[in-house]
Each structure stands twice: as structure tokens, then as C-alpha cells.
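Person: Show me a sequence?

Helper:
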Amino acid sequence: MRHRELAVAGAYAFEPDVFGDERGTFASPYQQKAFVAAVGRPLFPVAQVSRNVSRRGVVRGIHYTLTPPGTAKYVHCAGGRVLDLVVDLRVGSPTFARWDAVELAADTGRAVYFPPGVGHAFVALEDDSVVCYLLSAEYRAENELTLSVFDEEIGVRLPDGPPPILSERDRTARTLGEAAACGLLPEYIR
């Protein structure tokens, strides 16, 4: 398994070997030895596994959790294809407000690790794209926050395609500046 650090401090992309034959393919999107080599510790204890299915053009995010308690994520695409977006929302981080993108697809097994305080969004590039999450904490609505993926201060560039399809919550999300003014951004913890 190969890994690379993303433009957001502490976030990594992982790419396993994919083995194929006449039956199809096999890959292991998470491998502890490779994760420890990159991050320096094992993956967090998994408190919840979640998944969603999205049609082409769906944009989900930028989502993050109050920190503390914070939630780390390990994300891969089990069906279809998505452009996964990593956004540093941690005040004091050397990469604050920086973002990076990784294409995740079922046929590559590629995955992304998000440390607590880092925002997550994605754009579904195909119908029936399935995104799976390993989470360090269970979902708690009162800890879940969202920022606008269209915030010019962050400057995320979405891929060309159909008009974006967003939930009402994501469509009316705060900007980075508004969240900062309300004290809703996580602090960077080394």
C-alpha cells in the first residue's frame, strides 16, 4: 500500500494494490501497517461505520465536528467514483484553510484519513457512488457542523459536470469567516 500526505497537515491518501482476474478485483482499502508507517500510530478505535449512496452531481459537505470531542474519519469509495475533498478548519494549523482533493473509486480502493478538526466534502462523479466511513466517534447531531463548499475564502474548485445537488443544510451553510466569528472552528492540536 502506498500513501502520501495531502496539502492538509495530518491528512493522508492511501492506495492499496488491486489484484484482478477473470472474477473481478480484490483490494484492502485499510492496512494497519501502512497506516502506522504514515501516521505514526494505529487507526483510532472504530465507534461507527457509515455509508451513503449518491447520484452524479451530489455534493455533500463541508462537514466537520465540534472539537473537542472531534471525530477522525477513514473514508473510501465502495461503488462508483467521487472527488473527495479535505479542508483544514483547525485554527492555528500550519495549513489552515488549505484544501486538497483525491479521487476515490471502487476500482482503486484508494482511501483518505481525516484527523479531528479537518473538514470533509465530496462530489459524486457517477450515479450510485457509495462512500463508506470508519468514524472514531458515534454520530451526535449537536456536534455536527457544516461550512459552505462555495466559500470563496476556502476556494474549493468543484469539477465540471451537472449543477451541484446539495441538501438544504449544505446549501445554507456558514462561511469560514462566519464560523470563526461564532467560535465554531476547531483548534489545531499537535
Observations:
- The domain at 2-181 is CATH 2.60.120.10 (Jelly Rolls).
- The mean pLDDT is 97.
